[in-house]
């Protein structure tokens, strides 16, 4: 708590004008912020889909500080609460990769289009996307949400195979928005039903996100698992300057998990995974526990918030995530109960 209070001194004021904090005692740490309304959501969708998706194609990977400094440890994970699981839901049609994975597009504080990685998660209204909180909130100044946020599942080289889903509401943890707490660098985003923009020029609804692409499950308060599968869109460079990824196609890595000890950014219980993903573009990548190659489903148990070169060879070898605990589950449950609807 001492560290968090010191960090609070640097955040500034003005937060309450942009972000509403839930009031029930059991949800005091839940922060919810509006992203779009039914009235302006069609304009957001048109911004991304017009001119053959020109703004989607011109977007660049979001590039806040992505490198984490620290070391791997053999420390055990001690879950702070009871384990909980949310069961995944299969997609409407089969595919070769998880259709739940995609890009989270938005306009940053610089006025330019950017993207992170994200994944669809099962919820009551089948409208939920998990990503990095840094991809929803601009934390360079006073915390404020990014603009025109939308999700494109299955994005590949400009294609929107299952439509585009405009974001309506964001949920994250109070400690992230107030204290920039990297243990809480995650967000759940509710999206409207998907839309496409045919040649006629009129937006057409495709359906609810999870009904179409499926939804990954969720696992919290787990001990570290032997391996997880990481899915995302890495695009940045390694410390040695090499660029093994383009960010245009969904990438997968499989690796062992372990507890990390970080010096920068500070975190109480970060976890790591063997992964060669570079930082830019991979923020928000999903870590899927018990992933099935047949069903392309698993349990979300981590989300990339940074990468690290732990052996000093100039290549990133580790993805870093907050530990999925009761605090995350509380945010998930608040977001999972939020209805969105259609924009057409």
Description:
By secondary structure, the protein is mainly β. The strands form 4 sheets. Strands 4, 5, 16, 17, 18, 19, 20, 21, 22 and 23 form a 10-stranded mixed beta sheet that branches. Strands 6-7-8-13-12-11 form a 6-stranded antiparallel β-barrel. It has one domain (2-11, 28-336). It is globular, with a radius of gyration of 18 Å. The chain is built from 5 helices and 23 strands. The protein starts with a helix and ends in an 8-residue tail after the last helix.
Number of helices: 5
SSE run: HEEHEEEEEEEEEEHEEEHEEEEEEEEH
- How much is the average pLDDT? 89
Poorly predicted residue ranges: 1-26
Shape category: globular
Q: How many individual β-strands?
A: 23
Major sheet: 10 strands, mixed
Taken together, the total number of domains comes to 1
Distance between the termini: 46 Å
């Amino acid at each position: 708590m001492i560290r968090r209070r010191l960090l609070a001194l640097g955040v500034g004021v003005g937060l309450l004008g942009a972000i509403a904090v839930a009031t029930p005692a059991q949800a005091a740490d839940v922060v919810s912020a509006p992203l779009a309304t039914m009235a302006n959501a069609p304009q957001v969708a048109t911004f991304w889909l017009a001119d053959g998706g020109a703004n989607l194609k011109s977007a660049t990977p979001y590039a806040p500080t992505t490198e984490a400094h620290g070391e791997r440890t053999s420390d055990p994970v001690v879950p702070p609460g009871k384990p909980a699981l949310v069961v995944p839901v299969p997609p409407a049609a089969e595919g070769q990769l998880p259709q739940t994975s995609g890009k989270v597009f938005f306009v940053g504080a610089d006025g330019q289009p950017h993207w992170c990685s994200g994944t669809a998660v099962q919820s009551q209204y089948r409208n939920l996307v998990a990503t990095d909180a840094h991809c929803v909130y601009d934390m360079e100044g006073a915390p404020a949400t990014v603009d025109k946020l939308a999700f494109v599942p299955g994005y590949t080289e400009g294609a929107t195979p299952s439509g585009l889903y405009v974001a309506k509401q964001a949920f994250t943890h109070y400690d992230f928005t107030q204290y920039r707490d990297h243990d809480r660098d995650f967000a759940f985003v509710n999206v409207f039903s998907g839309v496409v923009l045919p040649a006629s020029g009129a937006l057409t609804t495709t359906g609810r996100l999870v009904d179409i692409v499926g939804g990954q499950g969720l696992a919290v308060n787990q001990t570290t698992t032997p391996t997880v599968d990481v899915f995302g869109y890495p695009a940045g460079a390694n410390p040695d300057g090499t660029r093994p990824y383009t960010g245009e196609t969904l990438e997968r890595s499989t690796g062992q998990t372990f507890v990390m000890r970080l010096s920068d950014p500070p975190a109480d219980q970060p976890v790591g995974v063997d992964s060669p993903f570079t930082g830019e573009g991979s923020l928000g990548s999903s870590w899927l526990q018990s992933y099935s190659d047949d069903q392309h489903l698993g349990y979300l148990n981590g989300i990339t918030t940074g990468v690290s070169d732990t052996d000093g060879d100039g290549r990133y070898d580790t993805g870093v995530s907050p530990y999925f605990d009761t605090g995350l589950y509380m945010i998930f449950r608040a977001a999972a109960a939020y209805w969105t609807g259609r924009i057409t």
